[in-house]
Amino acid sequence: MSEKECISLVPLHSSEKSSSRTNYSRTNLGSLVATPPLFNQSQFDIVLRRQYSRQEGKPKFTAVPSRFLNLTNDFEFAGWGSISHLTLLPEDIHQGDVELTSFREQQVLGQFTASALAANDILGGVFYTLPSVVALAGVYSPISLFVAALTLFLWRPVMEEMASALPISGAPYTYLLNVSTKSVALFGAALLLLDFSATAVVSAATATSYLAGEVSLPFPVYAGAAFVFVLFTVVSLSGLRESARVATGVLAMHVVVMTMLIVASVIGWGRDGMAQFRSNWSLGHVGLSPAAIARQVFNGVCIGMLGLTGFECAPSYTSKMKQNCYPKVLRNLHLSALVLTSGMMLLVMALLPLDVIESGNNILSLLAQKVAGRWLRIMVVVDAVVVLCAGVLTGILSACELLVKLSCDLILPRVFLSTVPATGAPYVAVISFIAFSALIYASTGANLTVISQMFAMVWLAVMALFPVSLLLLRFSRPRLPRASQCSLFVVAGAISVTVTVAVGNVAIDPTIAGWFALYLIILLVLFYTSQNKVTILRWVYWAYDQLPWLHRRQFTKGWGDGLIRHMKKLRRQEVCLLVKTDEINNLFNMILYVRRNEETSHLKIVHFHSGEIPSEMEANARSTYIVLHCFLDEAFPEITVDLMFVEGQFDPKNLAALAHHLKIPRSLMFMSSPGSNFPYSVAELGTRIISI
After folding, report:
1. Which of 375, 297, 329, 6 is CA-nearest to residue 140?
2. Measured between alpha carbons, how far is 433 from 283 in angstroms, rounded to an integer?
3. Buried-most residue among 229, 344, 464, 590 (CB within 10 A)?
């Protein structure tokens, strides 16, 4: 039988008159076109099989008509797949061992060091949260701040369960990526990046404003914020370990200064008595109805959530923490916020006149002046500037983890993985994030109020992603082992609080929603454009196809070939499916996931074995000589489906060795959800979970 010969089978009992043969022919552009049978004939015809003429590596042309009327669509067809057996080489095994050791050595952050990175943000919030809450809640501010901090009791068990199931950095983007589709995960990534940027901008601008409230600066506030960005860009490029040490030193200073202020304030309160507190309380609720008081407390809770910003940053570097540190980090952050914000507000109410408090000008420095004198006021101002600047560091480090992860997942260019040789810091990610944050700050006219308003909405949206991710995890990945499990009522409570507080913030100032939507839409457009580059180019190619006169012009006649080359280049990155069984429905669904979420033309199905190969796997992947045809390879003409049997145990070291051998990043290796008896962590594997 020749290479191009095709066979049509008809039932033995059908007559020559009633039977028919489907006619196949090649067009001048290379596509295979079929003349469909009549309806009364089609019931007797059996589908024509093309495996008899297949050639490995040759395009899998189909009889489906092309959408391109004037140009070829051959670029849409990948080559036929192959079957291979692989034994990992010693150098591959060695490289896998090196990568696994390197991963474990990156877990350098202990309980207090990891807490310090986020604590500088969450505890630094006391400097800009108190004035905002007082403006709305008045004398009820301590109550509002205490209630706001209590809500984190809902999020802590949710975040602990997610981190125990998926102990990987870049959360909640990485959570959504492993429990849903890539499109949903990109929505989470856009929110996260916006949150980190708002953290950096608000911290830098507030630090400069706080300093400007004490001394006359020879430069405007926005120039000071720009200097802070430059300074902490340099600190970030020094590497994670050094950045963590800086953060720890800053936090230690902040704790000392706040302790001194609290002790001095308690002594001053004991000396002056309750007179000032009673006076403020009487002035604060004169003429207010119970409904008005409840409204003030609720508004204070809504704005008081700003004092908790930074709590969402801890999951973004989970994989860098030592074992069993994460729950302790969340506890440290929560309790410190619970005590500091509401406790400090109570001391302010007890010692300062209400009109001074409501002026909103550096409240804590005024408190320090009253209880201890100018020396403590200077210390508080210095502490405020340093701690708020450290919030910029938190935003940068968290954003870099996210940008690197997006690059590994082929959302952003691979250049974002470039690092400083001496420190390993991702300098492209650092510089890009600083530039993006500066652009947001400049686009608002250096308006700190606008950025702060947007910050509140973004933070709430990010916090909502954690309970949503947990619901998706339990529904779509229920087999993933985890150390803790919280009640569904807790999950529902976290979502309800998020929605309620978000509505409250919009009711306070409707423009918040507008700024939030504007920047979110911009980021979503950028991310989805980057994710769907081939699809966009295909639309451009179709538009070019619809204009035949462009094909004859000297300047434009080569555009079609250029678009084809670029689309092929974008789809050349191989991806890998790690499979344990040969169930055809599971394999089919996994390939469907790849087709819908990844821009690739080459897929490898890999099975690790110790000498025994599932009975039907090879038949499902390839059948040249038997009637059971290569179903998976034929079902996806745009993807080359290879089947590879790898001898060895399925463990992190061998998986890293395979990634080195195939030159496929482990972030592009997909697998089903492991069960409770699986001995390895998902973080050690470095793969993506795509099915139940």
Report:
1. 297
2. 46
3. 344
CB 433 within 8 A of CB 403: yes
Neighbouring CB atoms inside 10 A of 239's CB total: 16
Output the pLDDT for position 669.
93
Q: Do 106 and 294 form a contact (C-beta atoms < 8 A)?
A: no
Q: Which amino acid is at 671?
A: M
* Residue from 630, 78, 552, 112 nearest 331 by CA: 112
273 CB-contact burial (10 Å; exposed 0-12 / middle 13-18 / buried 19+):
exposed
Global pTM value: 0.83
Q: Where are the alpha helices (DSSP H) in 598-663?
A: 617-621, 631-635, 652-662
Q: What is the pLDDT of residue 35?
A: 52
pLDDT of amino acid 244: 66
Cβ 465 vs Cβ 175: under 8 Å? yes
What's the start-to-end Cα distance of the chain, in Å?
44
SS3 45: coil
For residue 468, give Cα distances in angstroms to 311, 556, 670. Answer: 17, 49, 22
Measured in residues, the chain has a length of 692
pLDDT at res. 56: 55
**What secondary structure letter does DSSP report for 106?**
T
What is the Cα–Cα distance from 351 to 212, expressed in whole angstroms?
24
Nearest to 269 by CA among 203, 326, 347, 332: 347
**Omega before 65 cis (within 30°)?**
no
What is the predicted pLDDT for the residue at 681? 83
Cβ(99)–Cβ(80) under 8 Å? no
